[in-house]
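General statements about sequence and structure are easier to judge against a single worked case. For one protein, we set the task of working out the structure tokens from the amino acid sequence alone. The sequence in question and its structure tokens are set out directly beneath this paragraph.
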Amino acid sequence: MHCDTLWHNAHMMTLDAGDGGLGIVRDGAIACHDGRIAYAGPLSAVPSGLVAERQVDCGGRWIGPGLVDCHTHLVYAGNRANEFEQRLDGASYADIARAGGGIVATVRATRAASEDELVAQSLPRLDAMLAEGVTTVEIKSGYGLSLEDELKQLRVARRLGELRPVSMAPTFLGAHAVPDGWRAQDYIDEVCERMIPAVAAEALAEAVDVFCEDIAFSPAQAAQVFEAAQRHGLALKIHAEQLTNQHGAALAAGFGALSADHIEHLDAAGIAAMAAAGTVAVLLPGAFYFTRDTQLPPVQKLRDAGVALALATDCNPGTSPLTSPLLAMNMGATLFRLTVAECIAGFTREGARALGRFDRVGRLHAGLDCDLAVWDIDAPADLVYRMGFNPLHARVHQGRHVQRTALS
């Protein structure tokens, strides 16, 4: 058996255990061939006759799958720090919106920016994620709200994946908000009849998302978006039950959606529908923290129903200006009472599941992409316990592109 690289003298979190835990292997080894994992398991069980062109001694560190951030709005222009300051001084979100702030401000800045300017502003955010072990990242559009500008955002997402060693999962979120000068139904018709076909024709997105909320789009309008997306072979996701219970998660599950995200106001019927469909619950503690929300997602009921729990940064300028998956893990534990195993799985195995990439990334398993994060830690809990501390030793994307501290 031939392989390109063999990592050894390492403890491993395979995230491939039958019990859904971390799949810990002491004194493990990982072999990579042509960018894919050829073997992952105990060093003592490495296939006889294995020949590695390169061997990497990990010095007793921990290896896990590269992190998967399955919900971000990473591509946008400008920032809204001024609005944050205004809210601290007592202004309400409605006050800011009436003054031309809120999502409208980000749409205005994003429309005014060129592709090159959007790349330049988005790269630092992406680099911050990569520096903490991210190897797969979802990027949504949704700050263009016109055909030309939505396509521009998605093209920028593709360019970011060409500029950095990372796997991109682009999502079209044209149905993010009603743009100025439009009626909601007329805009949804535009999304379904012009935008989705154009996005599909250019192969710029893998999935379509919609914000189903009383301040955005109705369940009927979300269903219209889902039907259009399915006609064009695109996967489905939904922003659901963040502010109120619109029963969007159950709707999305009925369409076989990959995930329902936020879901603080999710009810029992929604949980049952998600469990039956295998729709992943994507929890976003950064937004919960930043907006000072008090309505917790029904984590225990989701657990009891067997719904997979993913975590993500929700990186965006208005409600979660967060680029740290490690801090998001800590927030998931402290705010939502997730376990260490759930937090790590949420940014690996379950994040991959939420993107429809369970059979490609998120676990250390033969045949999957060789995406690795090598951690300088004593135990997996360190990844969730520490705040403002980055123990990443090296990041490997598809068997190459080792970064941060080079392994000899």
Observations:
- Residues 184-201 form the longest helix (18 residues).
- DSSP finds 15 helices and 16 strands in the chain.
- The chain has a mean pLDDT of 95.
